[in-house]
């Protein structure tokens, strides 16, 4: 048995995989597979509408927000957000490599004020006490720093339009969408496979900048007027959206984001508890900012030479994807929604066993 801790793409609910396999063979009893139908068939239009409704139900998204499913990944949103919202100046919080990339792209469209950075300690904490400039068009932050294992777990109050990259923690907890002007992310961490990007945007923030925006980059294209485009201005990524549809159905069936958050906290507490107890390992993120999605840890100083041994030991026990990102080193276990508690328990057992044999 394998325990999948990959950082993304990553583990998905079994049910979602099974339903997708079936749909690839025969979509919606049409006798034709999901990958071979027209996206204009009524069955597909129903999947699109249902997927949007699942998002609205699960996150309580009000009517004044559009929910879009686009291509290009979160990385494409780094410049798309700025192209649509940055008139003169934007403010960014720099909490890691993804935030830095978002800053770089925004600079192509105007002035960017980085209000604070945690680069001084290799992004191992979330900066606090910074001031958000009220003359900026929006404030952008990365909700969960996938690489460094830090997370902003509450919805902040912001005097200007708030924009969040929630690629790696969307649907891991209830979110007060009304506090945001825009939320975006790649699906491949918590809500589906690679290939689809979600954007939740309050429609009244659009159309305020004066620049010409390429058709595909302009959010209004994908929203559409009457008749609405509903993310079907061009061919949507049907395969990825279908898997997302099934993944969200699973999430709803287990009780939605509030129930999911309880389980996620349980998983994170279990692993962080073991890291604190076990003398061979230490966590890398500041305790108050620790992510419930990505748990980063390294060997304690006196056991540094055991890193490769533990990697091998864990691999033999079925652990997959626990190698830390090269910029942090050590280990990273990603505990996304579909990662079961049993897998986290198996990793903890493995760390205990390793300590018994080596400490
Ligand atoms: C993975 C990730 C990205 C990049 O997503 P792509 O879809 O690969 O472009 C951006 N931001 C965060 C927080 C991520 O975890």
Keywords:
359 residues; alpha/beta; Aspartate Aminotransferase, domain 2; Aspartate Aminotransferase, domain 1; seven-stranded mixed β-sheet; three-stranded antiparallel β-sheet; globular; binds pyridoxal-5'-phosphate
Give a verbal description of the structure.
This protein is of the alpha/beta class and 359 residues long. The protein folds into two domains: 14-253, Aspartate Aminotransferase, domain 2; 256-358, Alpha-Beta Complex (Aspartate Aminotransferase, domain 1). Helix content is 35%, strand content 17%. The protein contains nine helices and 14 strands. The chain has helices spanning 14-25, 42-59, 73-85, 97-106, 219-223, 238-253, 256-277, 307-316, 341-358; strands at residues 3-4, 65-70, 89-94, 111-117, 138-142, 144-145, 150-151, 161-165, 182-186, 197-202, 281-283, 294-299, 319-320, 331-334. The strands form four sheets. A seven-stranded mixed beta sheet has the order 2-10-9-8-5-3-4, with helices on both faces. It has a three-stranded antiparallel beta sheet with strand order 11-12-14, with helices on one face. Strands 1-13 form a two-stranded parallel sheet. A hairpin with a 4-residue loop joins strand 6 (144-145) and strand 7. Helix 1 (14-25) packs across helix 6, helix 3 (73-85) runs parallel beside helix 4 (97-106) and helix 7 runs parallel beside helix 9. The radius of gyration is 21 Å and the shape is globular. The two termini are 27 Å apart. The mean pLDDT is 97. The site of pyridoxal-5'-phosphate (PLP) has 12 residues, from helix 3.
């Amino acid at each position: 048995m394998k325990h999948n801790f990959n950082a993304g793409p990553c583990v998905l609910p079994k049910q979602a995989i099974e339903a997708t396999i079936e749909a690839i063979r025969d979509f919606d009893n049409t006798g034709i597979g999901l990958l071979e139908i027209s996206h204009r068939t009524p069955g597909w239009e129903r999947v699109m509408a249902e997927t949007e409704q699942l998002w609205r139900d699960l996150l309580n998204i009000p009517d004044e927000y559009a929910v879009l499913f686009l291509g290009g990944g979160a990385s494409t949103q780094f410049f798309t957000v700025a192209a649509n919202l940055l008139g003169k100046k934007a403010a960014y919080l720099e909490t890691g490599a993804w935030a830095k990339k978002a800053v770089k792209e925004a600079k192509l469209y105007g002035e960017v004020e980085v209000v604070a950075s945690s680069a001084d300690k290799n992004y191992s904490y979330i900066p606090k006490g910074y001031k958000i400039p009220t003359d900026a068009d929006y404030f952008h932050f990365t909700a969960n720093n996938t690489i460094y294992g830090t997370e902003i777990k509450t919805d902040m109050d912001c005097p200007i339009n708030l924009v969040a990259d929630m690629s790696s923690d969307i649907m891991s907890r209830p979110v007060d969408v009304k506090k945001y002007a825009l939320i975006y992310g790649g699906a491949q961490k918590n809500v589906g496979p690679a290939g689809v990007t979600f954007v939740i945007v309050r429609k009244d923030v659009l159309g305020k900048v004066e620049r010409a925006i390429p058709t595909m980059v302009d959010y209004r294209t994908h929203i559409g007027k009457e008749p609405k485009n509903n993310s079907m201005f061009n061919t949507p990524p049907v395969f990825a959206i279908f898997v997302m549809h099934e993944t969200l159905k699973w999430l709803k069936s287990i009780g939605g984001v509030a129930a999911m958050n309880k389980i996620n906290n349980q998983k994170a507490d279990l692993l962080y508890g073991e890291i604190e107890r076990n003398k061979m390992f230490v966590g890398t993120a500041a305790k108050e900012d620790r992510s419930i999605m990505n748990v980063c840890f390294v060997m304690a100083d006196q056991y540094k030479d055991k890193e490769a041994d533990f990697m091998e030991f864990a691999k033999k026990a079925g652990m997959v994807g626990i190698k830390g990102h090269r910029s942090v080193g050590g280990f990273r276990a990603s505990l996304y929604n579909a990662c079961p508690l049993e897998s986290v328990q198996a990793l903890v057992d493995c760390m205990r066993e390793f300590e018994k044999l080596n400490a």
